[in-house]
Amino acid sequence: MGREFVDIFDGWADSYDASVSGKDPEYRDVFEGYETILNEVAKRVSGTIIEFGTGTGNLTAKLVEAGNSVIGIEPNTKMLKVTAERFPSIKVIDGDLLEFKIGHENIDAIVSTYVFHHLTDDEKGIALKKYASLLPTNGKVVFADTVFLTEEAKQVQISKERKRGYLNVVEDLEREYYTTIPVLKELFTKAGFQVRFVKMNDYVWLMDATKK
Ligand SMILES: C[S@@+](CC[C@H](N)C(=O)[O-])C[C@H]1O[C@@H](n2cnc3c(N)ncnc32)[C@H](O)[C@@H]1O
Predict the structure, then answer these.
(1) Which pLDDT score is estimated for 6?
(2) Torsion over CA of 200, 45, 57 and 147, rounded to 10 degrees?
(3) What are phi and psi of 85, to 5 degrees?
(4) Which residues of the chain are modeled with pLDDT < 70?
(5) Overall pTM surpassing 0.90 (yes/no)
């Protein structure tokens, strides 16, 4: 993963919460139902939980409020500082979806929202195998992220956003590794998970995976 992908978030740390609340028209559809999406992820897990890409700590808040023990993993220094200052009692570690060092905790679940697209599909497969090795039988991976039904549907969406003049969204969709449901289904299955997908808005799907 290139460091430049992570540095992009330096400029977003201060305005991120305004974006997710719908104040940025370009990202309104992506973040539609943001609170519901976070609640849906949080309610499906319990225990000791790894959260990747904590950002400003909005999902972290829901996990902590529900009484879970959270280990946050965040590669962007500014975002990491925001989460660490908001939750002084939890561990927030510098790391990413693929490269991270945790202690000897028994992990019950692994979660993230709006993060998994930072990995290429090959990297996603490697990461899921790593997560399977950390989890017990029935352990969970619950991710929510932008996913498309097909590659064609993704191209249709990019054209629609270009016509609307939402060029930041277009650039994001073309730069990052947004994938499709069939690809994800195969990657989760190969890594030993049973996975279900739930549509949350025009962009975001929830992936609810249980280790077999
Ligand atoms: C769009 S924000 C999402 C923040 C938060 N999860 C939320 O739902 O509001 C993406 C976050 O993922 C982090 N990130 C970027 N690349 C990452 C990677 N490879 N592994 C883990 N986190 C990453 C960014 O620094 C940023 O904090």
Answers:
(1) 67
(2) -30
(3) -75, -30
(4) 1-9, 11
(5) yes
The residue count for the chain: 212
Distance 112 CA to ligand 1 centre (A): 8
pLDDT for 3 equals 52
Read off the tokens for 169.
Answer: 């969204």
- Least Cα distance to 56 among 24, 111, 28, 18 occurs for 18
H/E stretch holding 167 reads: helix 167-175
Evaluate whether 51 touches 59 at the Cβ level (below 8 Å).
Answer: yes
CA distance 93 to 85: 13
The best mutation among 34, 78, 115, 169 to test binding of ligand 1, ranked by most ligand atoms within 8 Å of the C-beta, falls on 115
Return the amino acid letter for 18.
A
Among protein residues, the one with the nearest Cα to ligand 1's atom 23 is 53
Per-residue b or e along 141-169, where b marks 16 or more CB atoms closer than 10 Å to that residue's CB: bbbbbbbbeeeeebeebbeebeeeebeeb
Domains (range + CATH), the chain: 3-146+178-211 (3.40.50.150)
Model pLDDT, residue 17: 85
